[in-house]
């Protein structure tokens, strides 16, 4: 009897050790997957052209070496969407540019509220493949914007279109969605209503 009990205990220990090893392996794999999610997310966003917040490294050397293709003309349309209490719009609806030509356009934003707000602009492109060829040198979308009460601001976008853009793309639409970050306006507005 005691030998049988001893064998059962030994088998139970071996099963427990195997189960512990499997659980440890699963925990390590979960940690590795969680750690890998950030670069995977960045790659997916870069490939799809969604939620690109950081500028790509574009050196002046790269720009100066690009040739302006005078044989082609691309229509660039500008669009603006807002998620918040402000006016946001491009100062021009569209322009025609040659690939490789440095161009600047301006977007205008007006904070219509009597308090400071933080906001962020997220760009998107149509057709989606254009995001790989639309090179921004300067853009208000690279960082959050803090708008004081009733402040109006003009914000430039300096860009060029890579001459490697496929020949069948004749029009590119650059669209920005401008939205509030952090929800400070709700706190400020409730505080302002409490004072009145």
TrEMBL record:
Pfam families: CtaG_Cox11. The chain crosses the membrane at residues 20-41. It comes from the Bacteria. Gene3D superfamilies: Ctag/Cox11. Its main location: membrane. Exerts its effect at some terminal stage of cytochrome c oxidase synthesis, probably by being involved in the insertion of the copper B into subunit I. This is Cytochrome c oxidase assembly protein CtaG.
């Amino acid at each position: 009897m005691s030998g049988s009990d001893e064998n059962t205990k030994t088998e139970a220990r071996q099963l427990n050790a195997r189960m512990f090893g499997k659980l440890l392996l699963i925990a390590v794999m979960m940690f590795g997957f969680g750690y890998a999610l950030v670069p995977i997310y960045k790659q997916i966003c870069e490939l799809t052209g969604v939620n690109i917040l950081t500028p790509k490294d574009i050196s002046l050397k790269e720009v100066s070496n690009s040739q302006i293709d005078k044989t082609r003309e691309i229509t660039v349309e500008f669009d603006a969407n807002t998620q918040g209490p402000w006016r946001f719009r491009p100062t021009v609806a569209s322009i025609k540019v040659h690939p490789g030509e440095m161009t600047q356009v301006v977007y205008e934003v007006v904070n219509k509220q009597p308090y400071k707000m933080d906001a962020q602009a997220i760009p998107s492109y149509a057709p989606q493949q254009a995001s790989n060829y639309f090179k921004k040198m300067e853009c208000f979308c690279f960082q959050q914007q803090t708008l004081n009460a009733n402040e109006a601001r003009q914000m430039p976008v300096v860009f060029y279109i890579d001459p490697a853009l496929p020949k069948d793309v004749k029009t590119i639409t650059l669209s920005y969605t401008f939205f509030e970050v952090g929800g400070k306006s709700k706190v400020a507005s409730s505080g302002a209503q409490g004072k009145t």
